[in-house]
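Fold this: Ferredoxin reductase
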Amino acid sequence: MARAAVPRRLGDRLRWRVATLVARREETPVATTLVLEVPDWPGHLPGQHVDVRLTAEDGYSTQRSYSIASAPDGDLVQLTVQQVADGEVSPYLARELRPGDLLELRGPVGGWFVWRAAEPEPVLLVAGGSGIVPLMAMIRTRRTLGGRAPFRLVYSVRIPEDRLYRSELQRPDPGVDVASLYTRRAPDGWPRPPGRLTADDLAGAGWPVEFAPSVYVCGPTGFVEHAADLLVDLGHDPQRIRTERFGPSGG
């Protein structure tokens, strides 16, 4: 049977590459950023992800998908891995992998949930928990490329200790406004009591509907569905709301 031709660029992105861990950063007690050197990396757009494959000595292999956390940077790719309790892959990546270790990586993958620096319209980012990762890639790309589109980020986590990229998001970043909210426990003196994301949160920290922002929502499935419903109820165009959700995958 004849095989369909695979375009060269697509075929290149579908092949597995050997990546080397060159650095790691502890983001929270259960999340680690891995800085990988990937020879001949084809580049990526913020919002894309990669597949990571681990293979044991007996030949058993397993793979998981992880969002890219970094702006394009030559052959370097950053992934932030949150450890899943009883997971098969994430505990090894987050706790055992050391500089010099190798793993296999394929990508980048995805073309819908991406932001391009040439787009001029305002951007609203809505993140739940580790859903901040691909949105952080957008913020970093904007900064690296000198993008002029103004950003607003609404970031929801359970408790303060769960916040990823805390110090980076606290630094002044012209054109990027950050609003954090907590669902279980807030810092002492925080003006908003703990609770689920509301329409008032999005209306107050987001863009007015008449600004027609591009909206990116990422997080657990329940959070994403809830946030998207609130945005539509506020009058945002559903065609301008892009969502990326994740759920249990075995870790």
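The helical segments are 8-14, 90-96, 132-145, 166-170, 199-205, 221-234. Residues 1-8 have pLDDT under 50 and may be disordered.
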